[in-house]
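Fold this sequence, please.
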Amino acid sequence: MVSFVASDGAEAVATCLELRPDVVLMDIRMPGMDGIEATGEIVQRCPETKVLALTTFSDEELLSGVLRAGAAGFVLKDSPAEELIRAVRAVARGDGF
């Protein structure tokens, strides 16, 4: 299992290119390259990596944007741990969440 923390979207993309993780838990709002743009880059450049958006916002425009960018789903940051685990497992299997 590989895990990492990125401070912005550009670092997330670069690290994904290097480590090729199965699943990325992507924060939508980050400085510089945001999570929506980073998701699009990861999905395009690392198609084997699945992206699950993680956000505190239930803003439909942001959620639509990250799903259009290629995220397999999203989960709110205040969701119970069990839901986050279910979401990661679903996305890892190739399902949406």
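The mean pLDDT is 93. Strands lie at 23-27, 50-55, 73-76.
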